[in-house]
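Now for a chain:

_____
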Amino acid sequence: MSKQKKKQKLDPYVSRFLQLKCASDVLGATHPIGNHVQKEISESMAIIKRLKGIILKKPMEYTLYDMCAGNALTSVLAAHLLPVKMSIAIDIRKRKRSWENVKRFTYAQEVDIHEINPEDLDNPSIIIGVHACRSLAEQIVSLYLESDAEHLILMPCCAGNVKDREIPSIFTKQIGKHAAWAWQLARQSGGHIYEDTRCLSARNLVIVASKTLKKSGGGTENRLIKQLSKEHRKRAKVLAKLRHTTT
């Protein structure tokens, strides 16, 4: 097998992105992205995969909020690819890109997400966060819970403070701090965890929460366990059992 074919197998999201008619327009609007273009593309495509099914049920109704958006690759791609009413990127830093070339898109720069009033977010809306670090990920969850946003899709990055009352430190050591952090965020948001192995990032856990879905039986722990990778699943079940016996 050639090296080129091996590479295509390793990054299917990147290959799929490059086949999109809008790929050059998206890259043109967000350039320069940085030194890890393929990784960022795969992260954005992983989020788009989750967004697509939600937005297509209500075309041209949802406002998309991309928190801690960075180069806004995900929200720009969503504006090109999906029937969103408006795609809004938000970041504390100021960036100069070709945003004016993207329809149904705006970039709110130099905005601290801690200062956003949840009541100001549109209804219906979707909040996303691609590799938000530490307390920023928790703030994104808070905005989702306190606003009228119907859906949350979050791919956390650097782990924040994993509270011992949520996950005892002995289990955090077993499943890894990032998995424990994602677990905690999923519990806080009432969502599910998905491990997207097609994403090039090592931190490839995606949290999906929805206020429009009724809670299914089996509890939050059981729903999260089903989405964890095999190597984490056994230890996660022990953790869930422990939580039930101590509450």
Notes: Residues 187 and 220 are 7 Å apart (CA to CA). The chain is about 45% helix and 15% strand. Residues 1-8, 214-223, 229-233, 242-247 have pLDDT under 50 and may be disordered.
